[in-house]
């Protein structure tokens, strides 16, 4: 058991995707045996999800679906109150290669980074290709984020796989995070001068479920991102 | 007659508040709207003045613009109120989640202490 593991909180937002959650918790524990895993059930409607039945994990159920932003706030609040040193996020659909968590924590602790972004790259030909619209939207987000912040780390601003230290958690927790908060989180982090590092991870297909992002939600996400970009442009850098 | 209609609307609003069907703070934009409508109905010149300012040749048409303006003002005020309510609700949810997790964290640390 290392001190680094012991003081790390890994949170997993869950919304109706319970099929592989025990496997994911096991995988995390296989890589980092001493971390605290926090399952946040974001008001799942299919269920009931017995989060309490998952061994070796803290769990909390929100009374209704508030989105990943609120889940992130819950995890951040918990990390601040209980004085964790590092916080990581992993999705509940098995898309994220959790074996990279130890590398990401190492970058945080040894290279002095505040935030490590797990940017997805496609390796291998067995992957299902992303729909073209999703690729365009991602590319648009990435270009805007990099132009806005001048930070080349922001290649994948939609990834939900990241790790950050408690200083970054404290600073980012002061902002009201949106339903899909990743672009907001990374752009804010770059704007307030947090030291960000990119860690490439192989993109995987989901083990379970499908994206909660339909056409309407995607349109809203693009709208929200544009509002974010405009408000950031209007706001002077807070560095 | 116009004034009676405005007074009737005001009484209706008051009854809704009294029966606690509408939260009193949220009725303020409605109250302002009634005052504006009252002025518009009592003073004939008001409509003509608004038409003059907006460059509307057919003066009664300015009433439509006033109504649209009032509606937008009410919608905006309500959106602000709903946003504030949602923010407070999220704060409460976060607080409840913290108390749930604190209990689990305590029991976990007690278990760890026992094991060591």
Tags for this entry?
heterodimer, A: 239 residues, alpha/beta, Spore Coat Polysaccharide Biosynthesis Protein SpsA, Chain A, 7-stranded mixed beta sheet, 39% helix, globular, B: 116 residues, mainly alpha, 84% helix, 0% strand
Strand order of the largest sheet of chain A: 3-2-1-4-6-5-7
Helix content of chain B: over 70%
Counted up, domains of chain A total 1
Low-confidence stretches of chain A: none
CATH topology of chain A: Spore Coat Polysaccharide Biosynthesis Protein SpsA, Chain A
N/C terminus separation of chain A:
37 Å
CATH C-level name of chain A? Alpha Beta
**SS-based class of chain A:** alpha/beta
- State the helix count of chain B: 4
Average pLDDT confidence of chain B is: 84
The major β-sheet of chain B equals: none
Largest interface, C-beta within 8 A: A-B, 17 and 13 residues
Oligomer: heterodimer
Structure write-up:
- With 239 residues, chain A is α/β, with parallel strands linked by helices.
- Chain A has one domain (5-234): Spore Coat Polysaccharide Biosynthesis Protein SpsA, Chain A (Alpha-Beta Complex).
- Helices cover 39% and strands 17% of the residues of chain A.
- Chain A is built from 8 helices and 7 strands, in the order H-E-H-E-E-H-E-H-E-H-E-H-H-E-H.
- In chain A, strands 3-2-1-4-6-5-7 form a 7-stranded mixed sheet, sandwiched between helices.
- In chain A, helix 2 (21-31) links the parallel strand 1 and strand 2.
- In chain A, helix 5 packs parallel to helix 7 (182-191) and helix 5 packs parallel to helix 8 (215-234).
- Chain A is globular.
- Chain A starts with a helix and ends in a 5-residue tail after the last helix.
- The mean pLDDT of chain A is 85.
- With 116 residues, chain B is mainly α.
- Chain B has helices at 2-18, 28-42, 44-54, 61-115.
- In chain B, helix 1 (2-18) packs antiparallel against helix 2.
- Chain B is elongated, with a radius of gyration of 26 Å.
- The N and C termini of chain B lie far apart (84 Å).
- Chain B contains 4 helices and no strands.
- Chain B has one domain.
- The A-B interface holds A 36, 38, 40, 58-60, 62-63, 66, 70, 73-74, 77-78, 81-82, 176 and B 87, 90, 93-94, 96-98, 100-102, 104-105, 108.
């Amino acid at each position: 058991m290392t001190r680094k593991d012991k003081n790390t909180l890994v949170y997993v937002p869950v919304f109706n995707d319970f099929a592989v959650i025990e496997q994911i918790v096991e995988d995390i524990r296989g890589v980092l045996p001493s971390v605290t895993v926090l399952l946040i059930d974001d008001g799942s409607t299919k269920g009931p999800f017995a989060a309490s039945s998952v061994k070796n994990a803290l769990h909390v159920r929100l009374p209704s679906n508030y989105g990943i932003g609120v889940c992130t706030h819950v995890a951040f609040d918990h990390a601040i109150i209980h004085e964790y040193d590092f916080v990581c996020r992993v999705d509940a659909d098995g898309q994220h290669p959790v074996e990279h968590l130890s590398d990401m924590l190492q970058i945080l602790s040894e290279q002095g980074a505040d935030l490590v972004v797990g940017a997805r790259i496609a390796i291998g030909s067995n992957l299902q290709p992303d729909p073209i619209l999703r690729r365009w939207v991602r590319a648009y987000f990435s270009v805007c984020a990099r132009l806005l912040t001048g930070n080349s780390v922001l290649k994948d601003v939609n990834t939900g796989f990241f790790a950050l230290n408690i200083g970054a958690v404290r600073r980012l927790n002061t902002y009201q995070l949106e339903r899909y908060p990743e672009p907001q989180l990374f752009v804010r982090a770059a704007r307030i001068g947090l030291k960000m590092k990119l860690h490439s991870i192989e993109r995987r297909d989901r083990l379970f479920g499908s994206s909660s992002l339909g056409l309407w939600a995607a349109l809203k996400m693009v709208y929200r991102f544009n509002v974010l970009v405009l408000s950031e442009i209007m706001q002077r850098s807070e560095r | 007659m116009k004034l009676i209609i405005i007074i009737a609307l005001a009484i209706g609003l008051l009854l809704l508040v009294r029966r606690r069907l509408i939260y009193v703070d949220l009725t303020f934009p409605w109250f302002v709207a009634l005052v504006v409508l009252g002025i518009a109905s009592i003073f004939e010149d008001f409509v003509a003045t608004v038409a003059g300012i907006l460059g509307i040749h057919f003066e009664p048409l300015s009433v439509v613009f006033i109504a649209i303006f009032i509606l937008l003002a009410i919608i905006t005020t309500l959106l602000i109120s709903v946003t504030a309510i949602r923010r407070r609700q999220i704060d409460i949810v976060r607080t409840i989640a913290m108390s749930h997790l604190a209990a689990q964290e305590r029991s976990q640390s007690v278990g760890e202490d026992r094991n060591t």
